[in-house]
Amino acid sequence: MLERIRNALQPFGSVSSREHGDVVSLELEENGQTVFSFQMARRSAQIGVGQPSPWPPVALDSLEDLIAAKMAALVARGAPRDFLDIRELCRVGLASVDECWRLWRLREEKRGVSAPDGVTAREAVLLRLSRIAQTRPLSALRTGSIAIGPRPPGFGTNMNSPAPDANWLDSSLYPDVPAPRGLTTLAERVDFVVRVCGAWDFGLMPRPATLRELRAASWRPAVEEANLLTSCAWHLLCEWHGLPPARYLGPSFPEIERDPCLAWM
């Protein structure tokens, strides 16, 4: 399937791929900018039976699987689109809030989590929502201006530090809005950290140039401000920047916890 998609995209520009673990990403670039990306990953759990599609042998996920996967994304990533998707599902009556959480627990159990922690998961969702409210207040969205308070001491006007690779700003991380040309405010940098960590947590490794940029000292305030307690990637960035350890509220990984080699690491 990946080869068919690659062949279909090639007439429109340059196609590159990135792989990490079970995730493969195909990206279409035009004039050095990623304008389309397609990700595929191995399924970690299945609740319902796949439905026939117009593109055999590809099957469509059941509604239960789609809701469970979106709830997993809501807990682990908590992007604005995740909240919008779940809200719309509940608004039109396709599922209730309780049903969404029931499917999340069922998916976690099928992944091998013996006792999914719903209390911590809800706390993580509320934390994500508060972070969105802080960085993207409705009043600011209406005027097109986003700010999150005074800048830390020494926070310069031009925050684009020189980098050996100018392509560190990965435009494929902006599927919902036009990719920015640069990141000059703390709010923009926090948003970039959130997008990088969200993709990384789901198995899409950042580009080497992006990692080099994020490890620069000038990114420390944005990493600290992001406060992504549910993100494994964010906790790693904090460690790189020498920030104090923070409580982890993200999902558990039974496949790692059961690894017999873990005792030797």
Mind sketching the topology for me?
Layout: H1 2-9, E1 14-20, E2 23-30, E3 33-41, E4 51-52, E5 59-60, H2 63-76, H3 80-91, H4 97-111, H5 118-135, H6 138-143, H7 186-201, H8 208-214, H9 220-226, H10 232-240, H11 254-257
Antiparallel strand pairs: 1-2, 2-3, 4-5
Features:
single chain, 265 residues, mainly alpha, three-stranded antiparallel sheet, two-stranded antiparallel sheet
Structure description:
- The chain is mainly alpha-helical.
- Among the domains are: 42 residues, no CATH class; 84 residues, no CATH class.
- The protein is 44% helix and 11% strand.
- The strands form two sheets. The chain has a three-stranded antiparallel beta sheet with strand order 1-2-3, with helices on one face.
- The chain is globular and about 45 Å long.
